[in-house]
Amino acid sequence: MGYTEKAYQLYSDWLVGNEDVYDWCYADMGYILMTKGDWENSIDLLEKADKINNADFFTKKYLSFYYFFREDYLQAGNYEYQFRYRKNTYEEIKWKESQNEFLEGYKNDWQFQKLLQVTLG
After folding, report:
1. What is the pTM of this model?
2. What is d(CA 43, CA 75) in angstroms, rounded to the nearest whole number?
């Protein structure tokens, strides 16, 4: 299933009240707001998603992005570590502490790159 089809399914389920997908929808909407530069509302949605399901690795990834772009590298590193741990790719998980480590670590992540383009203008 492609991203568009997956999003359609999730939002369709959300609209009919399927609470099992609320965290995904809030997390995705939080990410979308970040791409629009709406940082205040994005964190509200991301925190809501994390409160509903604090084991979802996409929410942790988006929270990592949020704190990276707000220049709170300690929090960004915390959420990035949780994202990698929950994703469990059986790779060594290295704590990222600096801007350069984040940029290098996410150089192939299209969602991160999109945010980077938006913030750099």
Report:
1. 0.79
2. 13
